[in-house]
User: Fold this.
Amino acid sequence: MKITFFGGAHEVGRSCIMVESEGTKLLLDAGVKLGKETEFPLITDSELKTIDGIVMSHAHLDHSGYLPHIFSAGYGGLVYALKPTFELSNVLISDYMRISNPSNVTKEGLKRLQKGYKLVEYNQEFKVKGLSIKMFPAGHILGSALILVSDSRESLLYTGDMNLRVTKLLDPAQTEDLSAEILIMESTYSGTKDTFLPEKKTIETMLSSIKDTISKNGKVIIPSFGVGRAQEVLLLLDDYMKSGLIPKTNIYMDGMIGKAMRIHRHNVIYCRDELQKRILMNDDDPFKSVNFHNVTTRQQRNRIMFGEEAAIVVTTSGMLTGGPVLTYLEHMANNPQNKLILVGYQAEGTLGRALESGAKSVNIDGKKVEVRMTIEKYHLSAHADRQQLLSFVGRVKGLRKIFIVHGEPEKSEELREALKDKYDAVCPQLASVYQT
Assistant:
């Protein structure tokens, strides 16, 4: 197999990897890298027209956001994805188009994209010309998948983003009965210090902090990825509120989170059995809780920001690169009674990373905003940590070569150091090409 890394190498974002074999060119993911400037995969438009198929690991924009450009550039093939990935990526891409309005996308391209999806299922093999593909649960977000690509000689397993812990929504990634000679794996939290605390302890500390802010009539803002993290946080808050562990308070959903909640409800068959039974047998639908309120107007947002009631706001975007969170931050950051809680990865160059690093003032739409509110970080990850990544590698039978991607350079290199004695482990550079 010939493998080209057009994105996601020595960085987090714009995942885009081409696999060539048996006269077939397959693209694994097609993402963008969001930050001060949006960065795209380093693949030419002429090369895009030669692709035979695109297989999506999941819906997040760093894995799907380049699809509109690909179809605008003249790609006429199919995008293979699970049903939740198709529906969620539509919402995320629509939101991205509205906020960023990228110049490399046409209306015709967006129309072709809508007609270009081919739905597949977990554990059901399908073919793209000379290559066989199979998808397995990845545990990251709804519909996320590990992708196994096989030719007549060898197999390649691509993790996309994966999680090896049980969450409110999902079971862990599949680790049984996996075999491949080549592994392309994420390394978001692969550094030597990346060992997650027991999630129960993290959640208890976070909820205690939220309770303290609410008791002082402050407001809590939780910027979150609209797909995956937001649903986990909302279900968590709702459960604890119903149990009385945090006082009853309005929980506001702003951005495209409400749409994503409906998609989760309609695709609950892809969630944990426990969640399905809770809805189908007990008539207890956590996606439609009375504690949740959709923010749909500027007037509602103003009442939340300037009103006297305590409130919890779960809003996009997770790294504060755009969306409603910037409005809340602009008007609420100067009040020390308020609190901003970060629950996900904050990429270099983002406003979220600046706040995580202790910035006392930030620039929002050309305005200098003093930060007097409390900033806290709680690790509620949808990724595997270092020990889980090492454990996963050990479960893949027949493995000989590993490409380490989707991580900050130093973290990826630290994982390579741990693997190099047993495997041919490589941290590829952007635009690098390998023949297996």
In short: The two ends are 5 Å apart (CA to CA).
